[in-house]
Amino acid sequence: MKRRPPAPLSVWRTLNLDDFLLGVPHYPEHVDESYWRRDAERMRDAGFNVVRMGEFAWHLWEPYEGKFDFDLFDRAIDILADCGIKTILCTPTATPPRWLTMNYPEVLRVDRNGRRASHGSRQHADTTSPVLREHSRRITRALAEHYRDNPHVVGWQTDNELNTTVSESYSESCALAFRNYLRHRYQTIDKLNFAWGGDFWATAYDNFDQVVLPLPMAPSYLSPGHVQDYHRFLAQATAAFQHDQVRILRETNEAWFIFHNLGNLADIDFRGEFGQDLDFIGFDIYPMLYDEFRRTGGHAATQALQLDICRSYAGNFIVPEQASGLGSQPSFTTMTPEPGEMRRMALSSVARGADGLMFFRWRPAHFGAEIYWMGLIDHDDVPRRRYAEAKQFAGDISRIKDQLLGTSVAMDVGIAGGDFDNQEAHKTYPIGLPSPMDDAALLHRHCYKAGIACGFIHPEDDLSRLKVFYIPHWVMWDQAWTPKVRAFVENGGTLIVGAMTGTRDANNHILRELAPGSALADLCGVRVEEFGRLTAKDGAGLFQRFPIDQGLFIPPNLLPSSSAGRKYSLEIGGREIEAEHLYELLETGSDVEALATWKAWFAKGRPAITSRRVGKGRVVYLATYLGEELVEALTQTVLADAGVEPLIRDLPEGVEVTLRQAEDRKLLFVLNVTDTPRQIVNLPASIDLLTGQRVDGSLELAEYGAAVLSYA
């Protein structure tokens, strides 16, 4: 597993390793040592080449302050190595030991109600604490020095799912670090007062020592600038905490690869120092968990959405944890993958950019808060269908990895994503509107079902590989992105700009010019003279909740049971479509064409969707938000005109298709996400790498079946 220097962050970036990482998170400390060799032999027989260990073992590595004990893991690593299994170690800073929090209680987090955390179960310590950071450096340095020359340790994971349990803290150390962050950012208190709108509601500060943490509703609403800067600070603090560890590991052994495994993505700026420090990013994937909590079209579609979002941050990735069975903690239990579905979910991850995958976990725990979180081996130490599927998947990888590595995921339709400021800006002042991700999910889901190559991409990346680029209501538009976007259009691309884009500056101030901001307005040929809310279809009026990225939570008993009032619609291509969430009234230039117009009420006849030719391409402006009907209409008009077609025509319902490619090869993943067989036609002449069989136009996939078609 040789490491090369990583390329700059980009959705198109491939992994900088020469092998596919395949294995499991492993916890030898949870079982008697008599199990270890049998475990290693079974891993070898399954076709695994790596395990991940130690992320929650600080109390074992350092049983009391300054006393280190590596013996348990040394022996486990040697036994694994005897069976050809390499080890990825983790810095164990997600679970500081009890002696640390007893001796240094100031490291504990404080919640928004002023309650200091007790010890455990994880992420109980505050990453802004200088005391915690010093102990984090100590344990990282001790581990790095001990394993620096161990040939069986090939890489490191930093911490574990940073900010997943909780990202916010209101401790004294957090307040002090926040004030220092603001001093560096603004230099003078006058600049901070301007950024936060200090003349509104008498919120101005006399000096930085007066600055408080943004406690929600204490007693009323906060300045959006204040909230935005708090989350910028949390992201910077998280990156700094990780950087301490990365610097030590890099200085100790340059051959080690370093990554982090991400959970819910809170308060992490992947495009900043956090992502730049790493060789690649890992994303923990639990599709059944998404299905339970998100309800956005089924867990297969939601897994695809999550993977494509993740890839936008840094390109190809690994999956350090992929669900292998039922998942549970005391407050919830997921559904269980049916026979064949675990393998299918793993292949979906690979299809969408994973160049490494580890099934969570090797065996389930017999104690603790995850005793019903199943692994590949059952509680009675017997391998059954989950182990068999993992072994089958390992066989799949052995057949495709030589062609897979070095490929990236193709996209015809790119959705603007991966930008921390726009993610957070919506949350600071959502005004009952869908977040950019809520809106983007509608287009993504439509493309997923239709078999259109669609994903997320940052405007800083190479847009030339796309046919369509959609900006889903990014209120903060950096003018530095405009030249690249303009070049994309002038060279033949289609740009779609969503309503409300470019309406605020970096301080969360409303611009003193009509939307969508000077540079984008010049591209679009429109100005927004008025905007207002529309009731969402089957939604609420004053308050509205959204499934992906809730900006404001209103208790269900305060939500109206149904929408009321006028229905608003627009006409596009001779078809009337109900509009949702927002309307804008546009002023248009003479070279702007109306693709859709408002129907009835006072906006009747005004443009609702416009098009303007720019060079070889065109810019489409949406004076409203997406709905399912509008996405379908845009597919039939705008996307079709841009040359966007499904990867496979006449795709059956329940079949997922994804293309990974390099200059000299293409790999088309065709996956049946249902429990009934599917017949697929209109396939390219190719070889199915999983079976070695030639495919001439059609094939049948069994329930949860898969094919990986190779062609030039």
TrEMBL record:
Keywords: Glycosidase, Hydrolase, Metal-binding, Zinc
UniProt cross-references to InterPro entries, sorted A to Z: Beta_galactosidase_C, Beta_galactosidase_Trimer, Class_I_gatase-like, GH, Glyco_hydro_42, Glyco_hydro_42_N, Glyco_hydro_b
Residues binding substrate, per UniProt: 122, 160
Metal-binding is among the record's keywords: yes
Residues at the catalytic site: 161, 321
Keyword Zinc: yes
A cellular component term, taken from the record's GO annotations: beta-galactosidase complex
Residue ranges of every copy of the Beta-galactosidase trimerisation domain listed in the record: 443-538, 567-644
Gene Ontology molecular function terms on file: beta-galactosidase activity; metal ion binding
UniProt domain Glycoside hydrolase family 42 N-terminal: residue ranges: 27-399
One Gene Ontology term from the biological process aspect of the record: galactose metabolic process
EC number: 3.2.1.23
Domain Beta-galactosidase C-terminal: 654-709
Superkingdom field: Bacteria
Catalytic activity: Hydrolysis of terminal non-reducing beta-D-galactose residues in beta-D-galactosides
Ligand binding (Zn(2+)): 174
Family per similarity comment: Belongs to the glycosyl hydrolase 42 family.
Name by which UniProt lists this protein: Beta-galactosidase
The organism's taxonomic lineage, starting at the top: Bacteria, Pseudomonadati, Pseudomonadota, Alphaproteobacteria, Hyphomicrobiales
